[in-house]
Amino acid sequence: MDLSKNFFQLFALPESFDVDTAKLMDAYRSLQKVVHPDHFASGTDKEKRLSIEMAAHLNDGVDTLKKPVKRAIYLLGLKGLNVDFEKNTAMSPMFLMEQMELRETLEAVTNQADPFLAIDALYERLKTMQSERTERFKGAYNSGDSQSLERAEGIVAEMQFIEKLCIDIERLEETLD
Amino acid sequence: MALLQISEPGQSPEPHQRKLAVGIDLGTTNSLVAAMRLGKPETLPDLSGRHILPSVVRYLPAGEVVVGDEARDAIFEDSRNTISSVKRLMGRGVDDVKTLGDCLPYEFIQSETEMPYIRTEAGDKSPVEISSEILKSLSVRAQETLGGDISGAVITVPAYFDEAQRQATKDAAKLAGLHVYRLLNEPTAAAVAYGLDRGAEGVHAIYDLGGGTFDISILRLNKGVFEVLSTGGDSALGGDDFDHAIAQWILKESGQECVGTSVARQLMEIARGLKEQLTDADSVNVNVDTGCFTWQGVLTREVFHSLVDPLIAKTVRACKRALRDANLGPGDIHDVVMVGGSTRVLRVREKVADFFGATPLCDIDPDRVVAVGASIQADVLAGNKPDDEMVLLDVIPLSLGIETMGGLMEKIIHRNTTIPVTRAQEFTTFKDGQTALAVQVVQGERELVSDCRSLAKFELRGIPPMVAGSARIRVTYQVDADGLLSVSAKELTSNVETNVEVKPSYGLSDNEVTRMLKDSFDFAEGDKDARALAEERVEADRQLEALRQALAENGEELLSADERKQLHQLMEALAISKQGEDSVAIRKAIDELNSTSEVFAARRMDKSINQALSGQSIDNLGEE
Fold it and tell me: Alpha carbon B374 to chain centroid distance?
């Protein structure tokens, strides 16, 4: 397997934000069928090691292309833009205000009569915010000029924020059990 | 005249070449072994016709070990030496064990690692040793029933088992002398049992409520590929907790305070009986006569529901989370497979049906379905079905990360990531001139390391002194298909490297493994060298056979005459040293053969990949 191919080439897909999930998964499955360690239960040690490496690479690829935020970052990376979550501070004040308000709502969840219901509502709201950004990212990325790509970078940063919040919600929900 | 036998297409035409492979369900309460017999997966009975082996081990003063029903009968009279539900102790530390409950009647001993030992009349025993007794018993049963040596086993573990618990299970198998083809998640095994029988394709939920554990897995079956989309659960929630709730209710109703361990056990047994009767009856009479107190009352179904509903609600919330992790809703689920004896409780089926909006499947015996699925997979992994393209893609149940400044957990691999997986992350030094870096490997979902489980610690030394923040240390985590982790760390500007196999803090130390191997009654003192020799010979055979098969398939095509000659010479050399008595020499010959065969392995892999890809592009052309 040529590990230097990018993930789109690896699965024989066009380099685009829109990914045909069915095609991606078909390619992924037919490749896993030949490289997965299950095939080498009676194989030599070398085959086993190689098979773990390759299966891991395929898993990494499919994980990157399947998840919108990861895929967006990866696409920008292929265009030479490295999104650095830690250093990106240029968020719009409005977005930051909204984030703070969402954080406060999250912290207040435990005081609600039915915290699980409150969590569901918050989660739905975040999902809507995320899909709206996904659309905007697509538009900016497809335009392709450097100004649009810079805009796309800003949108991804917001998407990462929202994703982080989703993870925190899941964490909170687990501590409630 | 005897009828001529014709084998099914795709199955080995030469029966003597079929390898004997078994699937083992190593359960909290009960264990089972299954194998393919006459093309069908079946659980194997003991000499008295019993399929289920209670997971109970009793140690007698002379060192004799009793496993199963006979051991279970002694639970009350000899509770200190009779160990049940040992699965709950696997991969746990002394502190974890203390929080597991007040009802464990054993005397725990601190060992040289964090692993707790149980003091018995036959000496101090670790959970790994106790589990290995159960595995030995099943392995002997399989050998007797199938009439030959077992070449390998698929052993099931709860999907929710963490790294330490998986490692402990693998150690137990090693101690029992079993070659493990793979550790398989129980829900996945259940899906294999159902999926292949029906050829069902779609998204399935596997709801597995056993005696001591709860698992939920969401998986997709598509063209022979089982993909676990997400998994969740609770490694300390099960039918035993239902019994416990009933026992607590009896104590409350009868006005009794805390009672001794033997009475507590009797109450648990009574509670279990009541729970089972309530499957058919609307209410049952309760008669308690423990010798310590007597009490009579009535347990209605309504009261029973009020006792167990909070526990069931906990499982339903885990189902909801698993669906969300898989990016699905309850409506996307094709069907729900019920696994585990506790799914016989009607209330459980009711609540699960409500949540998923689907009638739960329970037509394969929920106690046997896991072992049956494991045996199907074992048969495939043994190579008995060369045409079978079944691939099982599992996920890791808990996130793996590293401790960073301030005691924070930085995740490197998130839970529900498909395995095998390799992930790397870069770190840097904190102080000027820092030459070493301590790496603490952590598992769990919480933000603080102190709330997670520490798996291992190691140090990367020899970093050249630099200004703080300028070293670039790449830490790489690799998880194999069994869910077992290895970690390496490398300083990129100087190439200083450290590799560790993660030996969990709660696992066995090497000294302990050596002692146990010595203690194991199959290998008495002095037999250690013989064992090493036997192991290397088996390994040599395995490598030789694998290579022979590979050469027969495409040696001519992928290797030059010189390369083939070199391989054959090394194979010959290994075959000769295998006849000798020197295990080190055999190991050396295996290693030499292995490194020379690397090129061949890589070419074979590339060929398969190119074939798979070209098949793929033809498919795509067809669609366009």
Answer: 11
> What helix, strand, coil percent values describe chain A, rounded to 5?
75, 0, 25
> B613, B618, B621: best mutation site toward chain A, by most A Cβ within 10 Å?
B613
Pairing of strands B56-59, B335-339: unpaired
User: Cα distance from B378 to chain A (closest Cα, Å)?
Assistant: 10
Whether omega for the bond prior to residue A115 falls within 30 degrees of 0, making it cis, is no
Q: Which of A31, A35, A37 sits opposite B480 (nearest CB)?
A: A37
In angstroms, rounded to a whole number, what is the distance separating the alpha carbons of residues A72 and B383? 41
Q: Is B156 helix (H, G, I), strand (E, B) or coil?
A: strand
Domains of chain B, each with CATH number or no CATH: 15-189+368-387 (3.30.420.40), 400-510 (2.60.34.10), 526-607 (1.20.1270.10)
Q: Which of B229, B316, B379, B418 to mutate to test the interface with A (most CBs of A within 10 A)?
A: B418
pLDDT in tens, B247-284: 999 989 988 876 777 788 788 889 999 999 998 889 99
CB contact under 8 A, B613 and A31: yes
Structure ipTM: 0.81
Could you read off the pLDDT of A110-123 as tens digits, one per residue? 888 888 888 888 98
Q: Could you give the domains of chain A?
A: 7-66 (1.10.287.110), 93-176 (1.20.1280.20)
C-alpha angle with apex B189: B183 to B193, nearest 5 degrees?
150
CB contact under 8 A, A50 and B381: no
B234 catalytic? Reply is no
φ and ψ at residue B399, rounded to 5 degrees: -70, 145
Query: Of B514, B484, B481, whose CA–CA distance to B175 is shortest?
Result: B514
